[in-house]
Amino acid sequence: LFSNTLKKTCTYIGRSCKDSHDIRIATERLADVEIPYPKKRVNNETEPEEKVRIEEAIKGLFNKDLYTFVKYESVYRQNKATLYSLVWGQCTDVIRAKLEVVDGFEDTSNESDGIALLRLVRQATYEFESQRNPYLAVYTAIKQSHNLFQRHSTPCDTYLENMQNQLQVVEHYGGRVSNHPALLELALKEMGINNASQATPAQTISASQKSRDKYEAVMYLCGLNQSCFQGLIDSLNNAFIQGRDEYPQSLTDAYKLSTNWRETTRQKAFDKGEMNFLQDADSDDDDPD
Known about the structure:
Elements: H1 2-16, H2 21-29, H3 48-90, H4 93-99, H5 105-111, H6 114-129, H7 134-146, H8 156-172, H9 181-190, H10 201-222, H11 226-241, H12 251-260, H13 265-271
Helix pairs in contact: 1-2, 3-6, 7-8, 9-10, 10-12
């Protein structure tokens, strides 16, 4: 995925390039960062001798600012060239062939402009993906979203990022993973609207977003590693059966819930039907006389 690769590129550039602040921001935005040209300070002194002295100081400061500007401009150009080499080296032969016939590639190559190259890669990637059968593209993207799960060695933040990227792919193809009429009606009822036909366009949009957020939260929970988070899922299910809906309201809420979840050793033992001897410090009962 282009978005996923771009994030990794930003991280790498931020670590490896000298004075990487500007090039990292430019890479994230896919747009050049303008380094401001230094402005000469104003001398408001009226006394002649003091004015001359301050003018000399201002001139010296401006020369230093100008030197810094030229230095940052040079570093920025070097970093763009480094980015160009990195991105071009990661392109497949198919993408390279497409890029070489795109208008503007020759200038981009001659200038070793990594930012411009990334924009061309994005354009070529999306054009390549758009050649797929649209029905197959939407089906495949939705299927991959529902088949996404957290591996044992994958931290929650990486799992969340993978899911967000996959959901973006679905939207790129014009699909929706949560476009279910029954859930939309349920969201409207929670808003006090029992008949969907009576809802205003604004209310329908709000209910649709609410339904989507909850559905994505459940997708996230169901894909969590079961060996680590089955207790969390069971806890939410049990609460719901008892009349308490403690399910997260959005994908972000689901992520926060998973990162804050801690299953105690004692609870794990009871869930497995095992019995552990507890040390005195762990027991709530007083020692017998």
